[in-house]
Amino acid sequence: IKRITTNTLQKMKSQGEKISMLTAYDFSFAKTFDGAGIDVILVGDSASNVMAGHETTLPITLDQMIYHASSVIRGVSRALVVVDLPFGCYQGNSKEALISAVRIMKETGAHAVKLEGGEEILESVKRIVAAGIPVMGHLGLTPQSIYKFGTYTVRAREEAEANKLRNDAKLLEQAGAFAAVLEKIPAQLAKEVSESLIIPTIGIGAGKHCDGQVLVMHDMLGINTEFKPRFLRQYLNLNEQITGAVQHYIRDVKSNDFPNDQEQY
Ligand code: KIV
Ligand code: NA
């Protein structure tokens, strides 16, 4: 099978084929998603929430991201694997940003990194790209800045913030980013930005006009059932199914049904 590269994604945009992206954090799910044909796997710092149980993405460390990413990469033979640079290992220091990105590439075998922000992190983006590492941008509701926003509501509804986002998207493209995530912004703004950029946009809560879509695996599989924003389409209710299976197992153990004569040596 032919590997997905940043060039493949660019080609998909020019040919009008939408890009599919999901998060994954471990070997087994990554292997299943890759086998199902997903284009891009994001080792998101949402691992901080769905894997570690933190309230925000801020606590996860670079070492923890490297552990998740190296597990994911061992399950993948086709998808492009992108890894989030976590909070505190790139903001305000392009040298540290480069060192962090290099660690991810060397220690995990992943194919690209993702950074949140526009103009503020431009020097970091340029420096990482100059080192030969593909960079994905992330604009709109950037969860590492949640304490600045103070709310998880839709971003860039006001003209000033929308204009900054338009400008940031252009700057990221000019700095050499190969794609940009647009999170929780009005569909009309995402459409405009997607049309104005050569590089593909990947939306989450950003409407149908993005060049691709991304969801957090725990949300779309219904493992996490507390999080139900309007933009989420839930494809399974795994929490319910797993609860049923576990309760069935408990009953079987308690009733001496499991293991039976065929299930022993
Ligand atoms: O960490 C993450 O899961 C993400 C996606 C939601 C884009 O950054
Ligand atoms: Na993220």
From TrEMBL:
Keywords: Cytoplasm, Magnesium, Metal-binding, Methyltransferase, Pantothenate biosynthesis, Transferase. It is an enzyme of class 2 (transferase). Mg(2+) binds at D45, D84, E116. InterPro entries: Pantoate_hydroxy_MeTrfase, Pyrv/PenolPyrv_kinase-like_dom, Pyrv_kinase-like_dom_sf. It is found in: Cytoplasm. The keyword Electron transport does not apply. The active site is at E183 (proton acceptor). GO terms for molecular function: 3-methyl-2-oxobutanoate hydroxymethyltransferase activity; magnesium ion binding; methyltransferase activity. Binds 1 Mg(2+) ion per subunit. It catalyses: (6R)-5,10-methylene-5,6,7,8-tetrahydrofolate + 3-methyl-2-oxobutanoate + H2O = 2-dehydropantoate + (6S)-5,6,7,8-tetrahydrofolate. Its EC number is 2.1.2.11. One of its GO terms (cellular component) is cytoplasm. This is 3-methyl-2-oxobutanoate hydroxymethyltransferase. The lineage of its organism: Bacteria, Pseudomonadati, Bacteroidota, Chitinophagia, Chitinophagales.
